[in-house]
Amino acid sequence: MGQVNDSVVTDFVLLGLAQSLGMQFFLLFFFSLFFMGVILGNLFIMFTVIFDPHLHFPMYILLANLSFIDVGLSSTTVPRMISDLFSECKVISFHNCMMQMFFIHVMGGVEMVLLIAMAYDRYIAICKPLHYLTIMNPKMCWFLVAAAWITGVIHAVFQFVFVINLPFCGPNNVGSFYCDFPRVMKLACMDTYRLKFVITANSGFISMGTFFFLIVSYIFILVNVRQYSSNDLSKAFFTLSAHVTVVVLFYAPCIFLYVWPFPTKSLDTFFAVVDFIVTPVLNPAIYTLRNKDMKAAIRRLSRQVVSSRDMT
Fold first, then answer.
1. Largest CB tally within 10 Å, which of 87, 95, 191, 192?
2. Among residues 144, 138, 115, which one has the least CA distance to residue 212?
3. Alpha-carbon 200 to chain mean position
């Protein structure tokens, strides 16, 4: 990277999340507890889906990939947030800042496509149940997963190639507790108005577009089900409510961070924390506590663990 960018700036200063010692200890406990929940909860879902043959269906394969993305997204930012709580000099190197931005947007882009893929899977399962296994075959499932990763990488690279070549020679205070394209661009020693528009279009409009696409698709599914049976409507609503909850939790911070024209540091920090910590820890709870197949798989896994201990 040093050969690509001849900037004078070699590191960036991050913003502290708390000033008082009491708040620092509270955030340390909060972040550590939730980060442990993110890692253990999502790894548990991945482990259960991989080793339980009853869950080798497209919906759960997509769910396992979503859990992997949640672990990656939190791991990109949360350890740094925890280590900076009691650090007087909250400095991140130029290279690490660029890599953090890159991986945040890779994970975010992949998750957007995965949520669309999961909505498509639910549409086929609810509206075309007789053709589900034919349409959502293993080849289609892995195609959707590959498409999600390709889209996420393209989304991140598209922004990264612009920012990495910007000249940075002046102030280096990011004004946030993590690096992101809009904040780092403001520190460039050149007019970045057009580039800001490109970044907003790439991140903000894509977030809004996919969010409204998902909400409309869920409404379409419910309307389609209602035409056939009112009893099936309640079942479909119960199934989709978990997906809608995940979509809202993921997209609300993204839309605010990239589209809202009047950002404030307090709301910016709040929504970023929700995106990096709260949503990834709630996803396992939402998908396990409200899903019969996952709860049955957890019981089978628990019995296997208990029986293996008894045999030893």
1. 192
2. 115
3. 18
Kindly list the structural domains of the chain, giving each domain's residue range(s) and its CATH number in brackets, ordered by start: 11-290 (1.20.1070.10)
Positive or negative, the Cα torsion across 61, 114, 250, 40?
Answer: positive
CA dihedral 81, 250, 150, 97 (to 10 degrees): -20
Task: Determine the Cα–Cα distance for residues 241 and 226; give it in Å rounded to an integer.
Answer: 16
Q: How far apart are the first and last CA of the chain?
A: 54
Could you read off the pLDDT of 110-133 as tens digits, one per residue? 999 999 999 899 889 888 888 898
Residue with tokens 């009853």: 54
Query: Which residue's entry shows tokens 């953090």?
Result: 100
pTM of the model: 0.88
Helix-helix angle 279-289:292-311, to 10 degrees = 90
